[in-house]
Structures are given as C-alpha cells and as structure tokens.
Amino acid sequence: MSCFLRKYQLLCLIVFLLNSIALSAQSYKKDSLQIKSYTLIEYRNNEVKDIKLTKVLCDYCTELQKEAVGVEALRRAKYESYDPENRLKEGDKKLAIYIRIAKKDFAAIKEEE
Q: Where is the signal peptide (predicted)?
C-alpha cells in the first residue's frame, strides 16, 4: 500500500509543478504590453540601403511613447536585417516587429518637465 501512496504523491507533485509552470508562463500578459510596429528595410546590391519605420500600432500611446517604441523597432529591424531569412539582393523587406514592455516601464516614458 505504501508503494501506491508514494506513486500517488509523486503524481500529485508532478501535476502541481506542471500547473505552476503553465501559470507562470502566462503571467507576462498581466504586467506587460505588446506593441506592434511595421518597418521597411531597403536592400540594394545585397546591402542595407535604408531602414524606415512605417507605423506603430498603439491606441493608448502618447506621441512620445510612440516615438520611443519606434526607436526600439528601428533598432530591432537593424538587427533583423542581418538574418539570412530577411536578406534580399534587391528590393524591400517589410517586417512586423512586436515589442513587449512592462507596464510600469511603459508608464515611465514621459516628457521631461
């Protein structure tokens, strides 16, 4: 009987741990925001000619917050331009950049007074 009890305890522990992991994996949604932005990378002769921010999709952002998110999106687009999946010999590559930021950090983006 004790063997059955040990197996039951072990099973309960595994279920508890898996449940905890699943809940913690979704906790970022509670305390962070996800903002989508679109960028355009222009390639000429297999090199990056220009990187442009085309749009920041954020209904609740101030202009300063949109600008800060745009700067981060441009930085990430520059990094992504080196990825072989994104490289082109000639042409324009459109990228959607998702930026996840903590709500308290996002609220801290304010104009200097």
A: 1-25
Edge-to-edge strand order for the sheet containing 47-57?
Answer: 47-57, 32-44, 91-102
* Alpha-carbon gap, residue 12 to 89, rounded angstroms: 56
44: three-class secondary structure by DSSP = strand
Note the pTM of the prediction, 2 decimals: 0.71
Q: What would the two tokens of residue 34 be?
A: 């996800």
- DSSP states along 9-32: HHHHHHHHHHHHHHHHHTTHHHHE
Compute the distance between CA of residue 56 and CA of residue 37 in angstroms, rounded to an integer: 4
Q: What is the pLDDT of residues 19-75, one digit of tens each?
A: 766 655 555 566 788 999 999 999 999 899 999 999 999 988 889 999 999 999 999
Where are the alpha helices (H) located in 1-113, listed in sequence order? 2-25, 28-31, 63-80, 103-107
Q: Is 110 exposed, middle or buried (0-12, 13-18, 19+ CB in 10 A)?
A: exposed
